[in-house]
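---------- Forwarded message ----------

FYI, see the Selenoprotein O record below. Original note from H. follows.
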Amino acid sequence: MLPSCFPGQRRDGKAVLRSSIREFIVSEALNALNIPTTRALSLTLLTQKKAQREVVEPCAIVCRFAQSWIRVGTFDLPYTRNDRNLTRKLADYTIEEVYGGVENLVEPRETEPDGPPNKYELLYREIVRRNAKTVAYWQAYGFMNGVLNTDNTSILGLSLDFGPFSFMDNFDPSFTPNHDDESLRYSYRNQPTIIWWNMVRLGEALAELFGMGSRVDEENFIKAGIEQDDVEQLTKRAEGIIDRAGEEYKDIFISEYKRLMSLRLGFQTIRDTDMDEMFSTTLDLMEKLGLDFNHFFRRLSHLPISVMQNEDSRARSAEHFFNSNSSFNMPGMQEKHKADEKEKAKQEIAEWLRKWRERLAMEDGGLNDERRQMEMKRVNPKFLPKNWVLDELIQRVQRNGERDVLQKVLDMAIRPFEDHWGPQSEWQEEDRLCGDVPPQDVGMQCSCSS
């Protein structure tokens, strides 16, 4: 259990209220979506403490907890110092104290060409598998961490250390929530690649241990390290292990991503053609028309099959997915051109709905609205703490002293699949917080001290 202390721009070790509210809410929101994450226990305002950021801000503490705070970056330090003993001790501690023993580490799926894996390879492969699953969840729910260096990558596959994070607004695979990320290193599109890059760094740190195979506990190796005669064989074995882990990473990521996207689209099964014919076409449609990533799935959850019987009804239903930030609603566009583009968009969505309906018909009872809508609403959140919501929340708490709104947003974040959270008198405000992103706030980016 740790307090949250983001160093911020002045490296003063203080966390400001702004960043603390963001981390407190998103930790619980991710957990509610079943995404592996660290958790937030409490948020405490330090009334007498201030910190200099872009402006002077009040400080706060988030008390966080997790099964372990060891990161991939924790292995970087002894590795870069060539501290073999500390690397081994850290790996042994992780196996025994974090994972509860080698018996809890899963054997590789394929047969090892150089003999059975030792415990360090089992540890490495387990960390790779867990991170593959977590990044698949991020991609399926449009979550971006914003800073995915090795220090922000958990050996348990947990989402952690939330600075310039964001949930996707209008779908843009090149979007990065970090306004300092000019190279788009941490963009939505690049997250699976950058997590694998971190896994390779971990593989380098552990390569000597799993490269020795069954000889890893020999006394000479423990005391003196690799003998020159063993370098070539050890290097070849270690490289092979990392390569095979990479194939498993890719397979697990794709498998988990397909499973989640199938659920979000209301499918009970996964077909070989779904990736190209349904998942990719869905994302292409969102990107082309400027559709909100998560709203699309939630609104699809409510759409009855009966309104998709013919082309006209599908075209009318298409307007269900539009928002004030869609591509044909761009400022400065002439009304006639806007109307023409909107009509084209309706036809494209209508054609997608036709294909979606045909795919549902392949399922056993796939056209049963009651069952499908209920199951889709269980996995497609109505509320997500998007950046515009958090920005407004911070302003209301920090400037206006409103405390009730913090509890309200937290309640919505931990029960994201509900239709409403409070009495009917609050529904209008709830729907506003769940609604379209204000045009000026689409694609809001943050700094690392956010």
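H. also flagged this: The radius of gyration is 24 Å.
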